Amino acid sequence: MTRKELFKNTLRKSVHAWKLINELPLSDDESLMLRHFMDQPGFLDLHWRMFVPAIKGQGTEEQKQKWLPLANKMQIIGCYAQTELGHGSNVQGLETTATFDPQTDQFILHSPTQTSSKWWPGGLGKVSTHAVIYARLITDGKDHGVHGFIVQLRNMDDHSPLPGITIGDIGVKFGNGAYNSMDNGFLMFDKFCIPRDQMLMRLSKVTREGKYVPSDVPRQLMYGTMVSVRQTIVSNASIAMARAVCIATRYSAVRRQFGSQNGGIETQVIDYKTQQNRLFPLLASAYAFRFVGEWLKWLYTDVTQRLEASDFATLPEAHACTAGLKSMTTSATSDGIEECRKLCGGHGYLWCSGLPELFAVYVPACTYEGDNVVLQLQVARFLMKTVSQLGSGKAPAGTTAYMGRAKHLLQCRSSIRKAEDWLNPAMVLETFEARALRMAVSCANNLSKFENQEQGFSELLADLVEAAIAHCQLIVVSKFIVKLEGEIKGKGVKNQLKNLCYIYALHLIHKHLGDFLSTNSITSEQASLANHQLRSLYTQVRPNAVALVDAFDYTDHYLGSVLGRYDGNVYPKLFEEALKDPLNDTVVPDGYHEYIRPLIKQHLRSARL
Ligand SMILES: CC(C)(COP(=O)(O)OP(=O)(O)OC[C@H]1O[C@@H](n2cnc3c(N)ncnc32)[C@H](O)[C@@H]1OP(=O)(O)O)[C@@H](O)C(=O)NCCC(=O)NCCSC(=O)/C=C/CC(=O)O
Ligand SMILES: Cc1cc2nc3c(=O)[nH]c(=O)nc-3n(C[C@H](O)[C@H](O)[C@H](O)COP(=O)(O)OP(=O)(O)OC[C@H]3O[C@@H](n4cnc5c(N)ncnc54)[C@H](O)[C@@H]3O)c2cc1C
């Protein structure tokens, strides 16, 4: 399809999804799932995932009563317009202004510079009638920083942009992926006026007289929509990783290459240890991210309930966990999808393998909802603050509780003596705790050598990110272990998931061996025992590998992959797909007579001469 056809087809699918949601007796979860699967990525997605939550989280009761009924019936279609051409990560650097005019009781929205143009918001370019706009609030000449405003963008009768608004699409994005069906847009304001009551005023407000009343709650609650989406992105990482692993595992069981004895059948590539070493950690990651995503959803729900009771105690933990786990799981999943493409050899590069599309649509997850490095630096800031408080007698809690055992963890030596010890949850956990703590304390000690803490932080950014990642990996390993010790029923399933849990943990030890050795968390001999155990675990998982991906229960339609077909009937279907290609409509290609024939004939003529 051309981009316009792709876009219009997405509109058709999104409206169809909305029709089904309204007609079928669906639960909220089913409705959410239908919106996600039918519209991923599309404007419906962001209306529900960002526009509506922003109003719910930052609007007053009156504003919610006015705008949510319209949004819930999709009588208005909204987007979340925060990022600008010049600023995305640095929210406090946004330039769009919202200046209060007491004469008219309005805000004047303006884009003072080209870099202040809103740029990227999904659904902004062509579809949305409204947006939550983030702009610098200015009253009486004073800049109060970034605040949210609900703004109508288009005429509700003919969809034309309102006067004072220039709006459009930012152009084709990465690959041919479905993201090109999404109208990520640009928007400039030219002294565009909105009523004062369209500033989202749950957190802070402006009175009729133009007096700014700051928030009596942490200003970061304005970031609440991003936190809620980051939390969902972790579970989405599990789904994307599972899709890629399902394709690569099934194909690795179908594909045979080399290894035939005396002309016999060739070897399934899934039996090569290198294939297992690349594939099974990704299989384990799909399960690991699912379980940590379940836990993160609980954490987010818990902090939301606490916030409603004005209990902000766990807000820093929720921010650090959503930011860090979003960052870590999306980076791992993007790399994992690409690895799955390579695990399928040449056929993995075909569009009909489903992997190029999955990669093209998935990889922006490393950037949107917060650049992954910027988010890990938020985790690092949280860890440094926690380490600095260790001596204060304030016991760290939640995911940093292990830091309360710093005295032990800083000096303990791993008691791993044989390969089987690497199947001991307490020993594995302590190894990850020791590594994470020692990396964080090392950063804190190095920071303390700088007189200027900000300068020290800037100098040590790379080390801080690695310490943050170590902390996040500990969270994932610990939540996998907790899941196994708790909810998993059925001995057979539990044994298989145990194998995956330790594959996940031990492959991380192998991948980040430098950290574990340099912090003396393990010795090189213990690392060798871990590798030995890893190979043994691969052997145990191998017979169940296909069953473990079948367990994701993805339909062939959803997987969209000839290589990942449930029936494994790959080769005939590859030909079937190939013959559908328009290039095969004729046996002699367009262009032969204009270009190929003259070339060949000219060559033949000169050869005769
Ligand atoms: C990088 C950020 C967080 C910096 O924000 P800033 O206001 O400059 O805060 P500081 O770094 O100075 O930290 C001050 C203080 O606040 C805490 N904090 C920061 N963020 C949060 C939060 N969300 N919740 C709770 N607490 C927070 C921080 O920990 C500090 O606490 P201290 O105790 O240490 O003082 C910010 O600029 C940011 O979030 N940048 C990323 C922007 C982003 O994510 N954009 C996404 C746009 S929407 C999008 O991409 C949509 C995509 C579509 C799709 O999903 O499909
Ligand atoms: C597909 C897609 C959809 C999007 N949808 C929306 C949407 O609906 N609404 C919306 O508002 N936005 C949206 N965005 C924008 C997105 O949120 C931003 O692109 C994202 O937050 C990253 O910000 P940036 O582009 O400014 O990156 P930058 O911050 O400019 O990153 C560039 C590089 O600088 C590095 N860097 C930046 N700051 C620091 C620092 N302090 N220390 C160390 N390194 C640093 C980063 O790590 C990165 O390597 C979307 C983006 C994409 C790709």
UniProtKB/TrEMBL annotation:
Active site (UniProt): 369
Tell me where in or outside the cell this protein is found. Answer: Peroxisome
- For the keyword Nucleus, the answer is no
GO BP terms: namely: fatty acid beta-oxidation using acyl-CoA oxidase; lipid homeostasis; long-chain fatty acid metabolic process
Q: Print the keywords alphabetically.
A: FAD, Fatty acid metabolism, Flavoprotein, Lipid metabolism, Oxidoreductase, Peroxisome
Q: Which SUPFAM superfamilies match?
A: Acyl-CoA dehydrogenase C-terminal domain-like (SSF47203), Acyl-CoA dehydrogenase NM domain-like (SSF56645)
Q: Has the keyword Lipid metabolism been applied to this entry?
A: yes
| Domain Acyl-CoA oxidase C-terminal as annotated: residue spans | 424-601
**Assigned GO CC terms:** peroxisome
As one GO molecular function, the record gives:
FAD binding
Q: Where does FAD bind?
A: 83, 122
According to the entry, every stretch annotated as the Acyl-coenzyme A oxidase N-terminal domain falls at 1-77
- Cofactor(s) the protein needs: FAD
Tell me which residues make up the Acyl-CoA oxidase C-alpha1 domain: 223-384
Q: PANTHER family under this entry?
A: ELECTRON TRANSPORT OXIDOREDUCTASE, PEROXISOMAL ACYL-COENZYME A OXIDASE 1.2-RELATED
The entry's family comment says:
Belongs to the acyl-CoA oxidase family.
Q: What is this protein called?
A: Acyl-coenzyme A oxidase
- Taxonomic source organism: Raphanus sativus
Q: Output the lineage of the source organism.
A: Eukaryota, Viridiplantae, Streptophyta, Embryophyta, Tracheophyta
